[in-house]
Amino acid sequence: MDTGQLILQLELSRHPEGGWYRETYRSTEKITANGLPERYDSARSFGTAIYFLLESGDFSSFHRLKSDEIWHFYSGATVHIYMISEDGSLSTLILGSKLEEGENFQAVIPANCWFAAEPAEGVFSLVGCTVAPGFDFADFELADRFALTAAYPQHTSLIARMTRQ
Predict the structure, then answer these.
(1) Is 122 left (phi over 0), alpha (psi -120 to 50) or beta?
(2) For 3-161, which CATH class?
(3) How many angstroms separate the CA atoms of 61 and 142, rounded?
(4) DSSP E strand stretches across 46-149
(5) Are 139 and 67 in contact (CB under 8 A)?
(6) What is the predicted pLDDT for the residue at 1?
(7) Are 48 and 104 in contact (CB under 8 A)?
(8) Residue (of 110, 122, 19, 41) closest to 70 by Cα position
(9) Residue 34, SS3?
């Protein structure tokens, strides 16, 4: 199946960070604002899930969320997820089906961690992402290339490649 067919069949839309997505689950139950850490300004669903598709040559720009996010590998090319922690350390998570080569079916991105992703090779990468407490665009921050580079100058070339300005 090619990416155009996947986009149509899964009813995906463009995501502001890059790639294609569709929300597949949103809990009907909510956690009230007073039951959440102070970084949340209102109630949130218990959890959410999406399909997320990256085509060859596309990438998920550096961004961060107020919640933990778990990526699940489904199909296609290996995915590299680059994470910059608050102390500036860089790590790469490798999502894919080649367990014997160190790839994993799941990867956890901690809340408030800057991260970006791209397919390693191939035509596309199809993953799922779950967020708890549930995703809300109010909790999504797309990185500004210049601010992120000023904060983490040791990662200038990666930040320049994985942001859109």
Answers:
(1) left
(2) mainly beta
(3) 7
(4) 48-55, 60-65, 68-76, 79-84, 90-95, 106-109, 114-119, 124-132, 140-142
(5) yes
(6) 73
(7) no
(8) 110
(9) helix
Tokens of 162: 């994985």
- Rg of the chain, C-alpha, whole Å: 16
pLDDT of residue 121: 85
What sign results for the dihedral spanned by CA atoms 151, 66, 114, 55?
A: negative
Domain limits of the chain?
A: 3-161
Look up residue 149 and give its DSSP letter. Answer: H
Mean pLDDT of 63-78: 97
Question: Using CA atoms, how far apart are residues 3 and 125, in angstroms rounded to an integer?
Answer: 9
Distances (CA, A) of 40 to 3, 33, 71, 129, 136: 35, 7, 22, 20, 10
DSSP 77: S
Tell me: the pLDDT tens digits for 21-36?
Answer: 999 999 999 999 999 9
pLDDT, tens digit, 9 for 90 and up, residues 124-138: 999 999 999 999 999
Residue of 2, 48, 65, 51 whose CA lies nearest to 22: 51
